[in-house]
Design brief:
Helix content of chain A: over 70%
Largest sheet of chain A: none
Order of helices and strands of chain B: EEEHEEHEHHHEHEHEEHEHEEHEHH
Order of helices and strands of chain A: HHHHHHHHHHHH
Low-confidence stretches of chain A: none
Number of helices of chain B: 12
Shape of chain A: globular
Radius of gyration of chain B: 24 Å
Radius of gyration of chain A: 19 Å
Strand content of chain A: under 5%
Structural class of chain B: alpha/beta
Number of helices of chain A: 12
Largest sheet of chain B: 6 strands, mixed
Low-confidence stretches of chain B: none
Mean pLDDT of chain B: 90
Shape of chain B: globular
Oligomer: heterodimer
Number of strands of chain A: 0
Mean pLDDT of chain A: 90
Strand content of chain B: 25-35%
Chain lengths: ~260, ~325
């Protein structure tokens, strides 16, 4: 990265962060879903210990990392709407005719989204501690990087479609169509250990399955688990690919 | 040095390909445009909606890639030196481009920084423009609360904050109230006085007439005619002068005596008034009045109407621009 692209990314990051800080209520509002799962759904899981096959029940240590991946998926999936606002008011066009580094226009946004997401992940984890969560601190810190990469991936997908559609109407259904199967097929809420074979096979082509496995291994402090490496490799490659795709959509706006 | 020409295009074209129900549809938005914009002038691109004005402006600002032809902007090649063009040209699009959730000051400072100006200087420049465009009463509020005229002032300040040599304005007064329009016209003239070259698109004839040194009339992706407003209007024919007299008899006498002395294109008495079409009516008016005076034929009222740019548009396209705008 050149000095100019760093400088421009910083400007864009600050600009987008200012927008977020202007209405901080949304940072908390988008945490509503995971908090509801934590408060209203997790207690059900304890009872599952009595069901054959769930010998140990589903512990908080398994549930919370999945919940954070869920937050990473859904919390950032809809950031594209803010970009449509900027397209409509001519802001993006103004940036494109300025000498600003073009990747910085998107990078400043996805990095903001990643920072907001990390704040949410930390808060959710803190809330989960009274529920008996014990976590390996180094594993937890490393898992934050994983969530940030998931957030960057989802935000890039969201921005890519926003740049293609340029209007709100098709954006929400498109993003839901992508996010819902990704979350169901990654064993976020319930581990896929009991899934029928076909579902298991499907989950293997879902990149987010690997990130959920990696997050669980990190929470448990199993640093020797191959799943951690797999999870990081998959999400890094994916994040780069979708970011480049979103960047291409931005360049296409000016062609 | 760029010499005298700030914009020079040859055969600039833009074709859009849109897909409608699977079938490819080719839209030729701009069909080969040659234009030359001289340093320090206000160049007006006048035409109805969909004529290709904005598309041309977007090509010149490097936002859109031309399909064909070539162009130099400030001496830089549009195809190869886009970054230099972006750095030295100011643009104000039709949408404006102010970030509505940020304050005017935040908008201005960020914009300056995007052009590589350091934060301290950016704040100084922002303050200068706030004062210059009289924005201090509202500039600390988020831009979404601005009136149309206030927002337009911010848009223009955003386009000018890095002190470009060339400013591209896309329909700068579209949808504004008459007061705001007049104010902006004044500001645009001041920019010209500062030596900035301005390329503006407009669908308003009065705007082109009042502001521009050179006008190109564009219709259906092509430039139809180029010239100064005066040249264009005098190409239509003469001015119309109407003298009104106390009685029809006096009017008839006046007609007779004016006919004797003058080469007029057309002269006609209607009730108490004499209507005549004459070239350079403005210059000939004092003579005409003296002539009538000498014969003791005192006119009660005199009106001179010049051909408008609408007459020009009508002459070259066979359509009225007003009708097109109304559509």
């Amino acid at each position: 990265m050149s000095m100019k692209s760093l400088h421009d990314t910083k400007l864009m990051f600050i600009r987008n962060m200012q927008h977020t800080l202007r209405s901080p209520v949304f940072v908390f509002a988008s945490m509503f879903q995971p908090l509801m799962y934590l408060l209203l759904f997790m207690p059900l899981l304890k009872g599952l210990g009595a069901v054959p096959g769930f010998s140990q029940g589903i512990t908080v240590e398994i549930f919370i990392p999945g919940l954070l991946v869920l937050q990473a998926l859904f919390g950032t999936a809809f950031v594209g709407f803010s970009l449509i606002d900027d397209i409509r008011s001519g802001v993006i066009e103004r940036f494109l005719v300025s000498p600003v580094n073009r990747p910085a226009i998107l990078l400043g946004r996805v990095l903001r989204d990643a920072v907001v997401l990390l704040l949410q992940c930390i808060l959710i984890t803190l809330v989960a501690i009274p529920f008996g969560l014990t976590v390996n601190i180094y594993g937890f810190l490393l898992s934050l990087l994983l969530y940030a990469l998931i957030g960057i991936t989802m935000a890039s997908i969201s921005y890519g479609f926003a740049l293609i559609f340029k209007i709100e109407d098709p954006l929400a259904p498109t993003l839901n169509t992508i996010t819902l199967p990704l979350s169901l097929l990654s064993g976020i809420i319930l581990p896929l250990a009991f899934a029928p074979l076909w579902l298991l096979d499907l989950s293997k082509i879902n990149p987010f399955s690997y990130t959920v496995n990696a997050a669980r291994a990190l929470f448990a402090g199993n640093f020797h688990s191959l799943g951690i490496l797999e999870g990081f490799v998959v999400i890094i490659v994916l994040a780069i690919l979708v970011f480049l795709w979103a960047l291409r959509s931005l360049e296409k706006m000016a062609s | 040095m760029i010499g005298d020409l700030v914009i020079e295009t040859k055969g600039l074209r833009k074709t859009f390909i849109s897909k409608e129900r699977g079938a490819k549809k080719v839209v030729e938005a701009v069909k080969g445009i040659d234009l030359t914009v001289k340093k320090g002038e206000i160049y007006g691109f006048l035409g109805p909606n969909g004529a290709g004005k904005s598309t041309t402006q977007k090509m010149l600002s490097t936002l859109l890639c031309p399909t064909g032809g070539e162009a130099k902007v400030l001496g830089y090649d549009l195809a190869k030196q886009q970054q230099q063009i972006r750095q030295n040209v100011g643009c104000v699009s039709q949408a404006g481009g102010a970030d509505l959730y940020s304050t005017g000051v935040q908008n201005l400072v960020l914009q300056a920084q995007l052009y590589g100006i350091d934060a301290l200087t950016a704040k100084k420049y922002a303050a200068e423009f706030v004062e210059r465009l009289q924005m201090s009463t509202f500039i600390e509020r988020p831009a979404q609360s601005y009136s149309g005229g206030q927002k337009r002032r911010l848009d223009i300040a955003l386009g000018m904050i890095h002190h470009p040599q060339l400013l591209l304005l896309d329909e700068p007064t579209s949808g504004l109230d008459p007061q705001s329009r007049a104010y902006l016209w004044g500001e645009i003239k001041k920019l010209k006085a500062d030596g900035i070259t301005i390329f503006l698109t407009t669908q308003y004839m009065d705007e082109a007439d009042k502001l521009c040194d050179t006008i190109a009339i564009i219709d259906n992706g092509k430039i139809i005619v180029t010239g100064t407003p005066e040249e264009l209007k005098s190409s239509v024919g003469g001015d119309t002068i109407v003298f009104s007299f106390p009685s029809e008899e006096t009017a008839r006498n006046a007609e007779t005596s004016l006919k004797e002395k003058l080469q007029v294109e057309r002269i006609q008495t209607v009730e108490n008034s004499v209507h005549l079409t004459i070239k350079d009516g403005e210059k000939k008016m004092p003579d005409l009045l003296r002539m009538l005076d000498a014969k003791n034929l005192e006119a009660q009222t005199v009106t001179l109407s010049r051909p408008s740019l609408d007459d020009v548009f009508l002459k070259y396209t066979g359509r009225s621009l007003r009708e097109d705008v109304a559509k």
